[in-house]
Specification:
The protein is of the alpha/beta class. Helix content is 32%, strand content 27%. The protein is globular, with a radius of gyration of 17 Å.
C-alpha cells in the first residue's frame, strides 16, 4: 500500500499531532469565531509551503480586499511579495462590489476561478475565505445538496488540498452538514482571560485517515510563525 503524501502546516508542534501533516487531497474546515486566526493561519500554511517546498497556492477571499490581506500578512512577517510567484490571492470581494449576477451564480464564480487558475498555475493548496460568506451571498436553496457537490468537486482535483474557512457559533450546537462532509475539521477558539490578555486555542476535531490528538492546544504566534503548546491548567 502506497503511503499517502502529507501536507505540512509548518505550525510548530502541530504536524506531529496528526502523523506528520494533513493527507493530500483532503478538504479541511478551519472553523472558529472572528478573531481566532482563521485567515492568518490558513495563509501561513500556504506561505510556508511556498517558501520551504515551492508549493503553489491559491487564496480566494470573499471578505477582505487583497490590499487589506496583504497588509495583514505583511504585518505578521508573511509578506505576499516574498511568494508572489507561488501564491495567487484572488480578491473576490471586489467582484461582489462591481458585479451584479444572480446570487445563485456565485457558486459558479468561485468554481470558475478555481478551475481557470488551476489550469494555468497547477496550484496544490487552496484556501476559501470563507465558506460562510459564499453561502450567504449565494442563498443556497438546498444547502445540503449544494455543499455535497462543492466538497465532491474539490476532491475531484488531482493532488489538491483545500482549506475552507467557516464561522463557528459561540453556543453549543448540533453538527452542520459541512462538518460531516469535510475530511478534516480544525477548531479555533479564544477566551478573554482579563481586560488585557486573550488566549487562543486549537483542536483537531476530525482528520480522516490519520491518527491524531483530540485535546485542545494553546495557539501562539511568535516571530512570524504559529505554534501550539499543551494547555496548562490554572
Amino acid at each position: 500500500m502506497t503511503k499517502k503524501k502529507r501536507i505540512k502546516t509548518y505550525i510548530e508542534n502541530l504536524d506531529s499531532q496528526m502523523s506528520g501533516g494533513i493527507p493530500e487531497g483532503h478538504v479541511v474546515l478551519l472553523s472558529g469565531n472572528p478573531g481566532t486566526y482563521k485567515s492568518s493561519m490558513s495563509y501561513s500554511i500556504l506561505y510556508h509551503n511556498a517558501l520551504e517546498k515551492g508549493t503553489k497556492g491559491l487564496y480566494i477571499s470573499f471578505q477582505q480586499s487583497r490590499e487589506s490581506l496583504a497588509d495583514q500578512f505583511e504585518g505578521m512577517n508573511m509578506d505576499p511579495e516574498d511568494v508572489r510567484e507561488k501564491i495567487t490571492i484572488v480578491d473576490a470581494s471586489y467582484l461582489r462590489e462591481t458585479l451584479e449576477p444572480d446570487p445563485e451564480d456565485w457558486i459558479d464564480v468561485f468554481k470558475t476561478y478555481v478551475e481557470n487558475i488551476r489550469a494555468t498555475t497547477d496550484y496544490e493548496l487552496l484556501v476559501l475565505d470563507s465558506l460562510t460568506t459564499l453561502e450567504m451571498i449565494s442563498k443556497m436553496e438546498d444547502r445540503r445538496e449544494v455543499l455535497f457537490h462543492i466538497f465532491e468537486w474539490l476532491r475531484d482535483f488531482q493532488g489538491l488540498t483545500s482549506f475552507l474557512l467557516t464561522e463557528r457559533a459561540r453556543t453549543k450546537q448540533t453538527l452542520r452538514e459541512e462538518e460531516f462532509l469535510a475530511d478534516g475539521t480544525i477548531i479555533l477558539s479564544k477566551e478573554r482571560l482579563d481586560k488585557v490578555e486573550t488566549r487562543r486555542y486549537l483542536a483537531i476535531d476530525k482528520m480522516r485517515s490519520t491518527a491524531h490528538e483530540t485535546s485542545y492546544f494553546t495557539l501562539l504566534f511568535e516571530g512570524g510563525k504559529f505554534q501550539v503548546t499543551r494547555v496548562i491548567s490554572e
